[in-house]
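W.,

You were right to be curious about this one. When I first looked at the sequence I had no strong expectations either way, so I just let the prediction run and decided to look at it fresh. Below is the sequence, 339 residues in total, followed by the output.
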Amino acid sequence: MRTSLFPFLFAAFVMASCTKDRPSGGSEPAGTTGASAKPLRIAVVPKGTTHEFWKAVHAGAVKASREDNVEIVWKGPLKEDDLKGQIDVVQSFVAQGVSGIVLAPLSDKGLVAPVKAATKAKVPVVLFDSDLQGDDWTSFVATDNQAAGKLGGDYLLKQMGGKGNVALLRYQEGSASTANREKGFLEAAKAVSAAKVVSDNQYGGATTESSFATSENLLAAQKAGAGGLDGVFAPNESTTFGMLLALKKQKLEGKVHFVGFDASDKLVQAVRDGHIDGLVLQNPFKMGYLAVKTMVSHLKGQKVDKRIDTGATVVTKADIDKPEMKELLQPDLKPWLGE
């Protein structure tokens, strides 16, 4: 009886082919996923793209991408009130099949469904800057916003001598980061018995223009020009600048104590001029850097922390030129953004 050699020859051919295609060393190259061996492509989606804060976040993300040899795609809505635009961006990246999405959600509710859909499509999401309801995300990289708001409130009340009428200019509803800052500020203000919160229900909105208009109305309603207001707090860059312009228009700069949040060249100059008592500073460069680093670690199968605090501090006229403050206020973005 003759036995055909064909089955044995075929099996040997298949084994040889598999051995030839297998990477040596049993591991994938850096910056790849095990299944596809394609370079990691990470989408970074900010709340907006015009404020100085987001430019620093972008620079930090670029630094991380270069260190880990991965590709990042930076795209977000132009203005920070374009919720539909941000949702469309997230959905587009999911459809493209990016390796992961690093997202600063414009709304703690509005982005829940898109993030859940991304996770279901096996596109992990790392949040930064602002929180999101639910648990369909991998990690949250941000300032402890409530603690930062309290830090600003404590400093403002100190400048006011622990007494007087104080107002809060809110940002906009649905923004978890600023809502927590506002909560922290109110916690600090209400803990001082000789201080009275006379306004906490006015929203500046996402632009300097809308914040300026709301600020004018707030100052008029509280009779700030006649001494009816001793201090005011604003929880982000646009509300801070809008309030500054309103105080200047009514010639109240330096007369009403004022603490804001985040920085730009004009806000830093206002601190130098004594028109703003202090600015609560985050570290947006570090935030963008760690958010991308965290996503890369997760994609490579490493364990990451659920929440990562990037810190906050208050800058004043007295310490504005200290090296550690200058690094936060004027980070060199040219090596990363070419600007």
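Here's what jumped out at me. The longest helix spans residues 52-68. And, maybe more interesting for your project: The radius of gyration is 25 Å.

Coffee later to discuss?

I.
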